């Protein structure tokens, strides 16, 4: 018999009690507050009056989750009844084991709805860890979705003490994951715990013993949660990040030896190194910590995060004197570039100022330590600092096989940093679902009839830079780019072998755009006159060079071309960049980096996007963008250069991004195999690359059989009455849309390979969306729904091109049909097609009633001279005004404030603050009603925005 959820819960509580947690029965918010008072008294060795405790509750009930996380870590200046001041501690972060630990279950909170939580871990009376369980056999995602529902419905009730939760744990007994309290993250940002050798600990009992042990979970909360100031969210370290930081700290405490961390690209090395630097500055024996990055990697966000932690620790100027002043000053943490550090320790001008630091204990942390300059920097540091201790982070270490020679000889990562302190390779990251697999396609010169590739002249520049060849490649990209990037929801990069080749590519794209062959937004950056032929020959990625000569006599063809391309960029994005000198060129580089990265942000405006970035070497290492999923390669890549470049595409993001796409326009499969062998093992190919096209079509066809067993034809879905049957159908069809999502990225995709034609697939999809709509349209029901817990993954079936503007073009054609002398049957047939299409597209369903109203009621009354677009916009505006007025009547709100809240949301993408919503009320709501009113108004506002403003497309005059 399957273990019930209640049995799983009791077993966990018994295990936690055995670990030293005190079991306590707390049934509601009042019990929770009474227990908090008792625990704070115990922890602080103090007796609190009721007045004093009310003051504490008021202090705690402020701000959002991020604000509360800060308050948790600070002491409260409590004014006591006798006039004295007491500094009250909520959490002992320095001696994290010295806190009070309790476990409770089934606490009930009444918010918008009544919710009951499974298992709660209390530290000093505050709920800091929340565990949500599902019985064995159920999807873990259902527990994740349930927590999201609790956050919306009840965590904000009764002093919002549950907004102090720092870590969530979800488990079905067999699989267990944890994650930080961050409402913005998705299921793919939840993590398994593991041991030091990266062996996953998934069983709930084992997870409890290792992760929920009192001292360990306290340590994770006190030391290994990062309060990310830029985004105002909590982030918790993953197991390999934890072990890496612990290894560095232990190394510094116990030895003077160096070391390096080998964590694969995309695994969050910067966060790991940030946390290591943060903790090392607190060690008394460490004089200073220098975090050293390449100039190309010191972006705005990294600078901002470090400056939040240690004010003014990041120097973004080019002044070496500024770094020297920082070194001589009191700041325990300095963030600088490798270029400036070299100048500071080599220059005789700064020798006197730096002299006092020679014999100090200084720890150097190098980000991306595989870069070639580290050989010289290492030599300079060892020569100058007698007690320097160095740690490097890399995703692709330099071994004897992939070391390039320079004036220092062949230097491996081990030569420079001695011992690998922790290893987490790409196969580990893919197995843990921390990065995606790759899909690699090779499109060489010619394919034989049997499908094999004809051998190319691998280093023949004349062959590869041939304009006709490049023109054919650009044609291929134009034809396939939308398929690869899911209709441009993601960006792509193209890397080529030389500046001349990049110029040819850009010109080719530009000419074909002028011919009306595409409307892709193509941008580029390169260092003019930079001879990169040698870098291409060895297959490794050269370092970015920002030095631009100001000597007019040295102007070159590539310099003129760069100016021309920057002018195109300025026109496209309304900017004013140039390449007049190194500083201006670097500003252009920064703007491109920010534009690509900002696409990851919630409020990014689509007109600011770039579709394809053309480069030679820039951005191929250390550049993390989640909304980049495709790399077109037309250059020689080998070893760490290849893995670094590939890894630009495989950051995790939602369900739509199922793999990183690599399209190689050279037949370098051997290079890929060699690189995989070097950085994982000889049998890793099947773990790193997705399966061939045939695998996914076969799996799809198997899934069709399973779907037909539940509902033979789409209309049979109507007969699925019970929730269990509906869930079974939803999961079966969701499996098909996942498989289709991967299959469609292959160039050879065709519905004819599937045992389900496109029309029937769309009909099933319509039924799938019907179930989704039904479960989301009952906001007042408190009964939990099995179907509501299932993630429908709508992003997999939304098509941005099917928007209101697209529907209006069809309506305009329908109007022309109506005015022409055609049969009523043809008109009705075309109208039925449009209405059916509206029902099938997820993003149009909220607008379906309005679009149908326009087609059924307003379209038949159109005069011949009236334009559909103009009449529709008037209709849409009037309906929008009426919807806002209806909201204001229902909730007694001021129209002008509501309109301003909608305008602010459309600009910033941020929901209105509670104070703003309450200020819109004609009468000030009662204190107890405010939270419910706030939640209800925001929900209705977002419904209006979704209905009237999202997925419209470009509305203009029809042709």
Walkthrough of the structure:
By secondary structure, the chain is of the alpha/beta class. Helices cover 45% and strands 13% of the residues. The protein has 35 helices and 24 strands. The strands form six sheets. Strands 1-4-5-6-7-8 form a six-stranded mixed sheet, sandwiched between helices. Strand 9 (193-194) and strand 10 form a beta hairpin.
Mean pLDDT: 84
Radius of gyration: 30 Å
The counted number of beta strands is: 24
Terminal CA distance reads 66 Å
Count the DSSP helices. 35
Structural class: alpha/beta
Residue fraction in strands: 5-15%
Report the sheet with the most strands, covering strand number, pairing sense and barrel closure: 6 strands, mixed
What oligomeric state do these chains adopt? single chain
Query: Shape from CA axes?
Result: globular
Relative helix content: 40-55%
* Contiguous uncertain segments of 5+ residues: 445-449, 531-537
Observed structural traits:
six-stranded parallel sheet, six-stranded mixed sheet, 35 helices, single chain, alpha/beta, 959 residues
SSE topology sketch:
Layout: H1 5-18, E1 22-23, H2 29-44, H3 50-60, H4 65-73, E2 75-79, E3 85-89, E4 101-110, E5 114-123, E6 126-133, H5 140-153, E7 167-171, E8 176-180, E9 193-194, E10 200-201, H6 204-210, H7 214-223, E11 225-228, E12 233-236, H8 239-254, E13 259-263, H9 269-280, E14 288-293, H10 300-309, H11 320-328, E15 333-337, H12 338-346, H13 351-354, E16 362-366, H14 374-384, E17 389-394, H15 413-417, E18 420-424, H16 426-431, E19 438-442, H17 461-464, H18 467-484, E20 491-496, H19 499-514, E21 522-524, H20 533-538, H21 557-573, H22 582-598, E22 612-615, E23 628-634, H23 639-646, E24 660-664, H24 669-679, H25 685-688, H26 693-710, H27 723-743, H28 758-776, H29 804-819, H30 824-840, H31 848-858, H32 868-891, H33 895-908, H34 914-919, H35 930-948
Helix pairs in contact: 1-6, 8-9, 11-12, 12-14, 18-19, 19-21, 23-24, 26-27, 27-28, 29-30, 30-31, 32-35
């Amino acid at each position: 018999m399957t273990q019930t959820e209640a049995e799983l819960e009791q077993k966990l509580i018994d295990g936690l009690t055995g670990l030293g947690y005190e079991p306590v029965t707390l049934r509601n918010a009042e019990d929770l507050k009474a227990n908090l008072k008792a625990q704070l008294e115990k922890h602080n060795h103090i007796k609190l009056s009721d007045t004093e405790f009310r003051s504490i509750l008021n202090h705690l009930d402020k701000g959002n989750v991020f604000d509360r996380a800060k308050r948790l870590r600070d002491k409260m200046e409590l004014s006591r009844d006798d006039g004295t001041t007491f500094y009250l501690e909520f959490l002992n972060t320095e001696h994290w084991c010295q806190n009070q630990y309790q476990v409770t279950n089934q606490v009930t909170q009444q918010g918008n709805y009544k919710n009951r939580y499974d298992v709660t871990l209390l530290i000093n009376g505050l709920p800091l860890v929340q565990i949500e369980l599902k019985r064995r056999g159920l999807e873990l995602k259902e527990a994740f979705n349930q927590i999201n529902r609790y956050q919306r419905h009840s965590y904000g009730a009764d002093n919002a003490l549950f907004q102090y939760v720092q870590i969530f744990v979800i488990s079905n007994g067999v699989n267990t994951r944890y994650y930080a309290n961050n409402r913005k993250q998705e299921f793919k940002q939840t993590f398994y715990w593991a041991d030091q050798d990266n062996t996953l600990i998934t069983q709930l009992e084992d997870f409890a013993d290792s992760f929920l042990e009192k001292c360990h979970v306290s340590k994770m909360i006190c030391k290994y949660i990062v309060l990310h100031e830029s985004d105002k969210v909590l982030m918790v370290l993953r197991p390999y990040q934890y072990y890496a930081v612990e290894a560095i700290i232990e190394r510094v405490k116990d030895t003077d030896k160096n070391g390096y961390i080998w964590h694969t690209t995309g695994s969050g090395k910067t966060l790991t190194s940030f946390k290591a630097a943060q903790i090392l500055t607190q060690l008394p024996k460490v004089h200073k910590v220098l975090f050293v990055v390449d100039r190309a990697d010191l972006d705005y966000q990294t600078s901002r995060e470090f400056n939040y932690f240690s004010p003014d620790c990041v120097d973004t100027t080019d002044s070496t004197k500024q770094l020297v002043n920082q070194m001589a000053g009191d700041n325990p943490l300095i963030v600088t570039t490798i270029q400036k550090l070299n100048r500071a320790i080599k220059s005789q001008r700064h020798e006197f100022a730096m002299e006092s630091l020679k014999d100090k204990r200084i720890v150097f942390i190098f980000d991306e330590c595989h870069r070639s300059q580290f050989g010289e920097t290492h030599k300079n540091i060892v020569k100058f600092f007698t007690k320097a201790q160095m740690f490097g982070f890399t995703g692709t270490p330099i071994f004897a096989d992939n070391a390039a020679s320079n004036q220092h000889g062949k230097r491996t990562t081990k030569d420079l940093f001695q011992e690998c302190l922790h290893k987490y390779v790409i196969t580990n990251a893919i197995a843990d679902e921390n990065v995606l697999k790759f899909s690699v396609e090779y499109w060489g010169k010619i394919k034989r009839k049997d499908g094999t590739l004809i051998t190319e002249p691998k280093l023949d520049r004349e062959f590869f830079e041939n304009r006709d060849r490049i023109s054919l490649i650009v044609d291929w990209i134009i034809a396939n780019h939308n398929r690869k990037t899911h209709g441009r929801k993601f960006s792509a990069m193209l890397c080529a072998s030389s500046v001349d080749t990049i110029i040819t590519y850009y010109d080719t794209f530009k000419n074909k755009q002028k011919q009306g062959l595409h409307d892709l937004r193509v941008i580029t950056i390169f260092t003019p006159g930079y001879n990169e032929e040698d870098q291409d020959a060895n297959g490794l990625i050269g370092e970015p060079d920002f030095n631009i000569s100001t000597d007019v006599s040295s102007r070159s063809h590539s310099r003129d071309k760069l100016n021309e391309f920057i002018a195109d960029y300025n026109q496209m994005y309304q900017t004013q960049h140039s390449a007049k000198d190194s500083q201006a060129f670097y500003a252009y580089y920064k703007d491109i980096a920010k534009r690509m990265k900002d696409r990851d942000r919630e409020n990014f405006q689509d007109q600011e996007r770039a579709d394809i970035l053309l480069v030679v070497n820039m951005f191929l290492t250390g550049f993390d963008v989640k909304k980049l999923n495709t790399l077109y390669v037309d250059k020689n890549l080998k070893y760490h250069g290849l893995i670094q470049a590939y890894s630009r595409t495989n950051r995790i993001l939602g369900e739509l991004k199922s793999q990183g796409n690599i399209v190689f326009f050279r037949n370098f499969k051997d290079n890929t195999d060699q690189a995989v062998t070097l950085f994982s093992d000889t049998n890793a190919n099947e773990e790193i690359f997705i399966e061939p096209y045939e695998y996914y079509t076969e799996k799809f066809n198997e899934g069709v059989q399973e779907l037909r067993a539940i509902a033979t034809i789409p209309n049979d879905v109507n007969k699925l009455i019970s929730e269990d049957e509906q869930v079974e159908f939803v999961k079966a069809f969701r499996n098909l849309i996942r498989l289709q999502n991967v299959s469609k990225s292959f160039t050879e995709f065709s519905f004819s390979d599937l045992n389900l034609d496109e029309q029937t697939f769309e009909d099933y999809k319509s039924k799938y969306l019907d179930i989704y709509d039904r479960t989301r349209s009952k906001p007042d029901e408190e009964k939990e729904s099995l179907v509501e817990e299932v993630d429908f993954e709508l992003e997999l079936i939304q098509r941005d091109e099917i928007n209101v503007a697209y529907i209006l073009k069809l309506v305009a054609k329908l109007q022309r049909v109506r005015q022409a002398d055609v049969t009523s049957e043809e008109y009705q047939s075309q109208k039925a097609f449009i209405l059916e299409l509206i029902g099938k597209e997820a993003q149009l369903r909220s607008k379906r009633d309005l679009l149908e109203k326009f087609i059924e009621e307003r379209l038949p009354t159109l005069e011949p001279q009236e334009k559909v677009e103009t009449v529709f916009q008037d209709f849409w505006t009037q309906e929008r005004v009426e919807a806002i007025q209806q909201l204001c009547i229902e909730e007694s709100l001021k129209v002008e404030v509501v309109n301003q809240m909608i305008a602010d949301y459309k600009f910033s993408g941020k929901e209105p603050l509670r104070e703003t919503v309450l200020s819109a009320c004609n009468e000030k709501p009662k204190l107890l009603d405010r939270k419910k009113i706030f939640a209800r108004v925001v929900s209705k506002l977002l419904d209006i925005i979704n209905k009237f403003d999202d997925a419209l497309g470009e509305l203009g005059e029809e042709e």
